[in-house]
């Protein structure tokens, strides 16, 4: 009886912990319907858990420099998307698209980064437009 009670308590604890995990990954601080495009020079690429950060110095029209922080997934997700720790180096010039912070600070959620050589880095590949509304082509859908 004691083993069953311990197992039940253990399973309940795991279920509670698993239920709170998605809350950590909230994107509520980012503008959900707005994407901006900026260009600048990579200062640092922090390839770390739980979130990686790309730091880019963006020069304004008036010559002032602003450091932008672009948040992304951790290394395992980036690696699956083909983004390595060495993919972005200090001094690289990039154009990036991000969902900016709601409060106006210079930071956002990484959508895409395009390097000068044309390489596009996206942690969450977007399906082609035709595939976004397409119905599944399984036997069950026919």
Topology:
Blueprint: H1 2-24, E1 36-46, E2 52-59, E3 65-72, H2 75-80, E4 93-100, E5 107-115, E6 120-121, H3 129-132
Parallel strand pairs: 3-5
Antiparallel strand pairs: 1-2, 1-4, 2-3, 4-5, 5-6
In brief:
With 142 residues, the protein is of the alpha+beta class. The chain has three helices and six strands, in the order αβββαβββα. Strands 1-2-3-5-4 form a five-stranded mixed beta barrel.
Tell me, briefly, the overall form. globular
Record the strand order, biggest sheet.
1-2-3-5-4
Order of helices and strands: HEEEHEEEH
Number of strands: 6
CATH domain class of the domain at 36-125: Mainly Beta
Properties at a glance:
single chain, 142 residues, alpha+beta, OB fold (Dihydrolipoamide Acetyltransferase, E2P), five-stranded mixed barrel, 3 helices, 6 strands, 23% helix, disordered C terminus
């Amino acid at each position: 009886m004691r083993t069953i009670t311990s197992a039940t308590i253990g399973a309940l604890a795991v279920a509670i912990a698993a239920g709170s995990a998605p809350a950590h990954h909230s994107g509520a601080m980012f503008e959900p319907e707005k994407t901006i495009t900026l260009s600048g020079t990579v200062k640092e690429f922090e390839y770390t858990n739980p979130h990686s950060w790309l730091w880019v110095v963006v020069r304004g029209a008036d010559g002032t420099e602003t450091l932008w922080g672009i948040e992304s997934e951790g290394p395992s997700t980036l690696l699956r998307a083909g983004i390595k720790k060495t993919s972005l180096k200090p001094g690289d010039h990039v154009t990036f698209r991000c969902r900016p912070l709601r409060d106006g600070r210079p930071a956002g959620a990484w959508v895409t980064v395009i390097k000068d050589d044309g390489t596009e880095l996206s942690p969450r590949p977007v399906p082609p437009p035709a595939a976004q509304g397409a119905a599944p082509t399984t036997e069950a859908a026919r």
